[in-house]
Design a protein that fits this description.
29% of the residues lie in helices and 27% in strands. Helix 4 links the parallel strand 4 and strand 5. It contains nine helices and ten strands. It folds into two domains: 52 residues, no CATH class; 193 residues, Rossmann fold (3-Layer(aba) Sandwich), CATH 3.40.50. Helix 3 packs parallel to helix 4. The strands form two sheets. It has a seven-stranded mixed beta sheet, with helices on both faces. Strands 1-2-3 form a three-stranded antiparallel beta sheet. The longest helix is centred in the N-terminal third of the chain and has 15 residues.
Amino acid sequence: MFDRMSKCYRIQFPPEGSENLGQDEVYFTLIEDGVSKRLRFHDYDKIYKRPGLYEQLFYERLRCNSPEKVANLLQSALSSVREPITELRILDLGAGNGMMGEVLKRNGVARLVGADIIPEAREAAYRDRSTVYDDYYVADFTELGSDTLEQLREWSFDCLTCVAALGFGDLPPRAFFNAMKLVRTDGWLAFNIKDTFLDHSDQTGFSRFVRELVFSKYLDIYHLERYRHRLSMEGSQLFYYALVGRMTASIPESFLELYGIEN
């Protein structure tokens, strides 16, 4: 597992007045060997290359607690129907360096497969949490190759998790939709989204996709809870929704097109 005593980085947040930046535009300054480098919070490839930087930035400085929250709600939903988490075969989409996977592994899931679009994520997961994932795929889920698709199907997933990876262009609706199609018809979904995504004033593709999914016949909601995802650089609270649901029917290929949702 990851060594919590690893290198401590010098991180500086921008001065007051930058709070109007979009959450996907926020940046910080990293000082290495006397040289200042500006990195966006979403520059995951550069952040993952530095062991411990992601944890220090998001979990120590900004107090993110989403993996624990989503995992606890999933455990609660399973307990309510008396299904053991130790039998779940989970696809962890947007797995990054394995923060969510570490919590799921600790809870005793049967099989756990990570997936992300950038190779730096897999490299960081194997470097820092080498025993967490049974396998880890670097793939674009908007257009999975036939070989990768077949390999993923062989895992027979009955749960999809996705934490801190939805919206902001990180993971488009088509990618999440294709991942859902890899989970059995009565399988579980456990993910989090920015609170505004359930507001009808938000007309972005992913927001509309989530709203249509939540109110569709294809998903039974077990938990939908607004909670503090993390702090902003200014110390204000950023709220997300954590959602755990169970699929009730096979979602048709026409779902995205039917609601005019961009891929």
